[in-house]
Every structure is written in C-alpha cells, then in structure tokens.
Specification:
The complex is a heterodimer of chains A (187) and B (286).
Chain A (H helix, E strand, L loop, with lengths): L4 H10 L19 E3 L4 H10 L3 H9 L4 E4 L1 H6 E5 L11 E6 L10 E5 L8 E5 L4 E5 L4 E7 L5 E8 L2 E4 L10 H10 L1
Chain B lengths: L1 H10 L3 E5 L2 H9 L4 E4 L4 H7 L8 H10 L4 E6 L3 H9 L4 E5 L20 E5 L2 H9 L4 E4 L9 H19 L2 H11 L3 H10 L6 E2 L7 H10 L4 E3 L1 H4 L4 H13 L4 H8 L24
Parallel strand pairs in B: 1-2, 1-8, 2-3, 3-4, 4-5, 5-6, 6-7
Classes of the chains: A alpha/beta (187), B alpha/beta (286).
C-alpha cells in the first residue's frame, strides 16, 4: 500500500521467503503470512478501505494468519489506538493500547540498542515518530522494552499468538533476527 | 542519518500536499496525505504575486501542526539557515530548502548536517542531487516547475537523474572519476551510486503534478512518492482530487484503477506553458 515495504521485502527475500505486494484483495490469495510496514497509519487505513482489502485481511487475521506489524503496522494491529483519527481503522488483533506519535515529532526520533528476549546481542532499534505502547494485556508477551523520558520502560516488541508488533523499524537495519524469528514462527 | 532518512522511507508511496490553512491541512489529511507542506502561498500564487517569498509565519505553521496528526513540513529559503533553525525549533518534521522561495544566498546552500531535523532539497540533475546529499539532504525531489500545473519539467528532471544513474552503473572505475568531474559531485557518492544503482536517499517527484495520471506517470518513471503543490487547492474541487491522487500513487501500475479514480474530478488547475514563463524557479539553486 504505502510505506517502507521495500526494506521488508529485501529482508524476507534474503531469508529465502517469496514476497509480493498487497494492494488489492486478489493479491491476498495463497499467502502464508502478512507484513504491515511502517508508513502513515491514517493513509494506510484509508487505502485499505478504498481498495476493499480491509475486510478480507481482517477475515484472514481472524482465522490466524501470522502477521508482523512495524510502527504504523503496530498501530493498525493494536486493540486500542490513542491520538489517532476518529475514522482510523484497526484490525484489533493484539491486546495493547498504543499512543500514536507517542514519542513526539521527528526531531524526537532516535536510535537505541534494545535487549530482546532470546537474543544474545542487543538489537539496533530505529524509532521514527514511533508509537508508545501504553498498556498491555496479560496474555501479550513483551519481548523487548525501550526507555521513555523519565526512565519508565515501555514495550517495544510484543507477541500474542500469531501476531507480532514492534514500535521500531527492524527493516531499516541489516539485522535480520526479527524477520527470522517471524518466519520461524510461521513454520 | 538512519533516523533522519527513515522518515523519508516511511513517506514512500505517499502524497505530500501543499496547504496554506489548517482547514486545507484537514482536507489533505482526510484525503490520505502522508504529510503536509505548510506554506503561506501555494507556488501558483507566489508566481502570480511576485516579490520576495519567505518562510511562513510561525503562527500559521503552528496552526497547521495543531490541526493534523500527520507529519508537517515547511519551506526555508535556499541558504537561509536562520529560517531553518526557526523551523527546527517549531518542531516541523522536515525542512524543504526550496527554490520556490526567493534564495537568500547565491552560492551556498544550508549546511544540513548541523541540524537534527531532516531536509529535502530539489534537484534538476544528478550532480545537483548529489551536491545536496553531500550537504546533508535526506530526501531529494525533482524540482519540476512549481506552480505551473505542467508536468514536463518534472519529467525532464526525473529522466535526467535516473538516466544518468543507469549510465553510471555501466561505467568502469576510471570513468567514475570523470563522471564526478562532469557532475561536480563528490567521488565517493558517485561510486556509491554506481555500486547500488540508486541515490543514497529516497527520491520523490515535485513540480507540476495536477492529475492522477501525472502521479502515475512520475511513479512509473521511478519517483518513490509525490509532492503536489498548487495542483490540489487550485483545482475546481480539491477534496476528491486529493484522494484520487493518493489512490493513483498507490495503484500507479494499474491503469484501470487510475482510470477509475480519474472520473468526474472537475477541472484541474489551469496550466502554464513553460516557454512563456518570466521566472523559472528550477533555475534557482547551485
């Protein structure tokens, strides 16, 4: 649709996956998993609606299609979106509440190494006008957190069933470990 | 750099719209714009009115920031680093060092490395694009000829930049030294382009886009997103045209979809013939 799909495509191809872009409902035929990239969540929401892909994707996710959402993708999968537009749609597939642009504007965007459960080495976290996870249901596994101003920790990588979301952009780095983890979970 | 160009990556496949009021910014956001460019007058009016065009009033920029949740960009004059500092302090998400405003410096562009806020700059050819990148620009856009509703200049600039990139990828090591000399661009960047086959930062298209078909054309030529200036709010019915251009950028490779969204949009902005212009904005910048 809109956003940084090219980097996700490159990362997944390097790991041996077959990748194609979804713009229309017919593009969904035969897929094993879905990635919702970073971009502008209000724009992607509008385009999902106007292209007629929102309902079919919602149905596939309901049936358990594995999905990875980064940044805007996290917002589109969150159960509750704060500071969004009133008409902004979400697939509501993971029980978290996120605040859009929770870290602030672009001048507040940052890079920070984060510790991820199960990874020995830290992961380079690139946060761009990133959402902040405000609340997390007990059924959601928090795999990594990031420090907010004032020292409080906020979840940055979460998983619930087949749904994985990050507030940062693994696709903007050369580090493939998160994409690898996503593909491993599909198999 | 990764954080600064990262926002440009997130805007890819989207439409950035020029707006002059909070009400227009809302229309743009409602139509699915990925960002808005806050300015006092759209390029068509700047062209008509003449005089010195400067950075917008901070009150206007803040009004637009308050009206929308998507990124807000604003323009500074070429070389006017004080205007850029002010825009950064206002928290704008991107600064456009733009030839649409009257240049403040006839030989120097802003040293963009010294800022936290990322910059976009216009270019008419590959050498200009690489010079801007060497100064710290995180996004390049074609200049086109702003405020004309005429796509011909943007096409010329895109073809020039992308055509030279294609040629450079075929050049041998020795030829790259000559390319750097011809382009008046740093050798390191020329070598990087030769190796990767693309600019080191995203390349968007601006200048003269007025219809969904224009948007499809420049995306097919290789632009990664589009800026629409006067083309929306100088048209007969801005809201549906804005939405149609957003959809045309998403489905640019699908003529049936572009045809569908092009129906019944009313009159596009009246266009201008490039040969009859008194001032060519694209010639500003060095």
């Amino acid at each position: 649709m809109q956003g940084a799909s090219r980097e996700h495509t490159a990362a997944l191809k390097r790991l041996g996956a077959t990748v194609h872009q979804v713009r229309l409902p017919e593009d969904l035929v035969g897929i094993d998993a879905l990635v919702i990239p970073g971009g502008e969540s209000t724009t992607i929401s509008m385009l999902l609606e106007s292209s007629g892909t929102f309902e079919p994707i919602a149905q596939l996710l309901h049936e358990g299609l594995p999905v990875l959402g980064t940044c805007a993708g996290m917002i589109l999968l969150a159960g509750d979106v704060l500071d969004g537009r009133p008409d902004q749609k979400s697939f509501a597939q993971i029980d978290i509440a996120v605040r859009r642009n929770g870290f602030g504007r672009q001048v507040a965007s940052f890079e920070s190494d984060i510790r991820i459960k199960g990874f020995e080495e830290p992961f380079p976290g690139v946060f761009i006008r990133a959402p902040v996870v405000q609340t997390v249901d007990r059924s959601v596994e928090v795999l990594a957190s990031v420090e907010l101003d004032g020292g409080k920790q906020s979840p940055a990588l979460c998983r619930q069933g087949n749904v994985m979301v990050s507030s940062f952009h693994p696709e903007l780095t050369d580090d493939l470990r998160i994409h690898q983890m996503f593909l491993t979970n599909i198999n | 750099m990764r954080v600064k160009r990262g926002l440009a990556d997130m805007l890819r496949g989207g439409v950035i719209m020029d707006v002059v009021t909070p009400a227009e910014a809302k229309i743009a956001e409602d139509a699915g714009a990925v960002a808005v460019m806050a300015l006092e007058r759209v390029p068509a009016d700047i062209r008509r009115d003449g005089g010195v065009a400067r950075m917008s009033d901070p009150v206007m920029i803040e009004g637009i920031q308050a009206a929308v949740t998507i990124p807000v960009m604003a323009k500074a004059r070429i070389g006017h680093f004080a205007e850029a500092q002010i825009l950064e302090s206002l928290g704008v998400d991107y600064v456009d060092e733009s030839e649409v405003l009257t240049p403040a410096d006839e030989s120097h562009h802003i040293d963009k490395w010294s800022f936290t806020v990322p910059f976009v700059c216009g270019a008419t050819n590959l050498g200009e694009a690489l010079r801007r990148i060497s100064e710290g620009a995180c996004m390049i856009r074609s200049k086109g000829e702003a405020g004309t509703g005429n796509i011909v200049e943007a096409v010329r600039h895109l073809r020039s930049i992308l055509g030279d990139i294609r040629k450079i990828t075929q050049a041998d090591e020795a030829e790259l030294f000559d390319w750097a000399k011809q382009l008046q661009a740093p050798l390191g960047l020329v070598q990087e382009v030769a190796e990767t086959g693309s600019l080191p930062v995203p390349m968007f298209c601006a200048g003269g886009i007025a219809t969904p078909a224009d948007a499809s054309l420049v995306m097919q030529l290789g632009a990664e997103a589009v800026f629409v200036g006067s083309g929306i709010f100088k048209s007969e019915d801005p809201a549906p045209r804005a939405k149609a251009i957003v959809e045309a950028v998403t489905h640019y490779e699908d003529p049936a979809m572009v045809a569908k969204v092009s129906r019944g949009l009313g009159d596009a902005m009246p266009g201008l013939e490039i040969g009859e212009l008194e001032t060519k904005l694209a010639e500003r910048g060095w």
